[in-house]
Write a sequence for this structure.
């Protein structure tokens, strides 16, 4: 994430939001988010993410969600090739949107074989940290989608390279997150709003915080689950509340 502050500083100097600098152009006010099962009781999203491994688990989620909510599955490298083929084929009636990181991060060749074998689109997450990974995956024809996380790509700079490679290869992108506050999520939201090739958004980690340490920045819509609002304030448009910084160190640039 070391390059993210540079984007923020540049855009602050320009007096514009990050998405309006560095040739990033805002294209929408709202984006649809994908929410994991941990927060569905608090919202009404139209896309759910199921961290599931077995047919019975995912079927239970589909039954709960109903037929109209888009549902993707993230196996987090939990399967080997034969298991992935069997599980994905068994889950075909559940009308999933795509399978995220079904195999080990390093197993590029079998990810490609899997994509050839099953009809469900395949998304890479742990397999893609930077533009070199992205180039390798798209050259192999191993994936339909790439999951960009600023925590993996070390900020917006490399994330834009990943997205550019994906877009050139006809591969759509997703922006995901780790256990991040709304500060880091705001940067991801800026990126997602600035790049039309980013079709899937999973920026729900702030729901896990007992206290919100951030003022400004992206916010979740109160009424429409999965919708995210982002202001046009300069820079990231978000900062930590002072009371949460009292015990920390400070660097002045
Ligand atoms: Mg994932």
């Amino acid at each position: 994430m070391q390059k993210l502050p540079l984007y923020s500083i540049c855009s602050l100097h320009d007096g514009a939001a990050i998405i309006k600098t560095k040739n990033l152009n805002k294209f929408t006010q709202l984006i649809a988010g994908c929410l994991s099962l941990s927060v569905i009781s608090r919202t009404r999203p139209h896309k759910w993410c199921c961290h599931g491994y077995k047919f019975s688990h995912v079927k239970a989620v589909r039954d709960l969600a109903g037929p109209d909510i888009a549902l993707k599955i993230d196996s987090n490298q939990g399967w080997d090739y034969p298991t992935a083929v069997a599980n994905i084929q068994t889950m075909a009636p559940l009308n999933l949107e795509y399978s995220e990181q079904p195999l080990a991060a390093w197993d590029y060749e079998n990810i490609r074989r899997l994509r050839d074998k099953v009809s469900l689109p395949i998304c890479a997450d742990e397999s893609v940290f930077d533009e070199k990974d992205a180039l390798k995956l798209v050259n192999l024809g191993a994936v339909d989608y790439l999951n960009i996380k600023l925590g993996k790509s070390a900020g917006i700079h490399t994330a834009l390279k990943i997205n550019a490679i994906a877009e050139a290869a006809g591969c759509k992108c997703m922006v995901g997150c780790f256990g991040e506050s709304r500060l880091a999520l705001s940067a991801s939201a800026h990126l997602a709003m600035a790049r039309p090739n980013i079709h899937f958004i999973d920026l729900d980690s702030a729901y896990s915080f007992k206290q919100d340490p951030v003022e400004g920045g992206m916010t979740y819509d109160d009424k429409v689950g999965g919708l995210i609002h982002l202001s046009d304030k300069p820079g990231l448009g978000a900062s930590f509340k002072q009371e949460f910084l009292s015990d920390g160190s400070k660097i002045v640039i």
Q: What stands out?
A: The pocket of magnesium ion is lined by residues 74, 76, 100-101, 125, 147 (CB under 6 Å). The chain is about 30% helix and 15% strand. The helical segments are 4-14, 55-65, 81-90, 108-117, 131-140, 150-153, 156-168, 182-194. The radius of gyration is 18 Å.
